[in-house]
Design brief:
There is one protein chain. The protein has 247 residues and is an alpha/beta fold. It has a single domain (36-222), classed as 3-Layer(aba) Sandwich (Rossmann fold). The protein has six helices and six strands, in the order βαααβββααββα. The chain has helices at 59-70, 72-85, 102-115, 143-146, 161-178, 216-223; strands spanning 36-41, 120-125, 128-129, 135-136, 198-202, 207-210. It has a four-stranded mixed beta sheet, sandwiched between helices. A two-stranded antiparallel sheet has the order 3-4. A hairpin with a 5-residue loop joins strand 3 and strand 4 (135-136). Helix 1 (59-70) packs across helix 2 and helix 2 runs antiparallel to helix 6. It is globular, with a radius of gyration of 20 Å.
Length: 247
């Protein structure tokens, strides 16, 4: 398909109802009156790094690995910003952060919060899974907890997993019913405002954080190696092998 100049994407196609990507054009008047709950996860499509048991790494080892990934200058800055943003998370997970999805999410939230009359709620799923030496939450790993079926998925059987499932599914249902995710087990979840970015962090301790990404995200965009969604197939692979995703 690429040879034919065609491209398959996962976004809706413009029509009379959906006029355009609101980050490219404008929000529709009707959408600005509808409450929004939007978020991401800590690592999304971040590159997987094999560091063995991450909890056994010394502080010196963590710092060295972060600086190897981002460079001496970038690593120093990112370590400081990561510790400020995520004081309860091992700083080696700074290497798992990504800039493919989070910048667009933040831009969307800021734009809609500035223009909408309805509330805009933002979240970040920041669970560290006790798996393979330690894995930061990856793309879609929040869904079982929101849908209250984590007990059906072995990897979701984690410390504080039942608490997360209860509060996340409760927030999801409350938002669907009322447009407000606040409920039992969570601190007050304030919506984002034009000049006030609020993020509910779902992790071993759920907390509302103001301007969570303000310092760290610009540094990631500056120092993070470019994101490659599709790794190149080996030269000797036949025509039917390789990536099954067309983007």
């Amino acid at each position: 398909m690429a040879d034919q100049g065609k491209r398959v994407n996962w976004s809706p196609q413009p029509n009379e109802y959906y006029t355009c990507d609101p980050l490219v054009g404008d929000f529709s008047a009707s959408s600005l009156k509808i409450p929004t709950m939007v978020g991401s996860v800590l690592a999304e499509f971040g590159a997987i790094q094999d560091y063995g048991d991450r909890e056994k790494l010394t502080v010196e080892e963590r710092e060295r690995l972060v600086k190897e990934n981002y460079g001496e200058e970038g690593g120093e800055k990112i370590l400081a910003a990561f510790r400020k943003a995520y004081p309860d998370i091992n700083e080696i997970y700074a290497n798992d952060l990504e800039v493919a999805f989070l910048p667009g999410t933040v831009e969307y939230v800021k734009k809609k919060a500035a223009e909408a009359s309805a509330p805009v709620y933002n979240y970040l799923f920041a669970k560290i899974f006790d798996y393979d030496g330690g894995r930061a939450a990856w793309h879609c790993s929040d869904i079982p907890y929101f849908f209250h079926n984590a007990e059906l998925i072995s990897i979701c059987h984690q410390a504080n997993g039942e608490m997360l499932e209860r509060v996340m599914s409760g927030a999801f249902v409350n938002f669907a019913k009322t447009g407000d995710p606040n409920g039992e087990g969570l601190p007050e979840w304030k919506p984002c405002q034009k000049d006030e970015y609020q993020t509910m962090v779902f992790g071993d301790h759920c907390q509302l954080r103001k301007d969570l990404f303000a310092e760290l995200l610009p540094l990631l965009k500056e120092y993070k190696p470019p994101f490659q969604f599709h790794p190149k197939a080996a030269d000797d692979e036949d025509e039917e092998s390789g990536s099954a995703w067309v983007f």
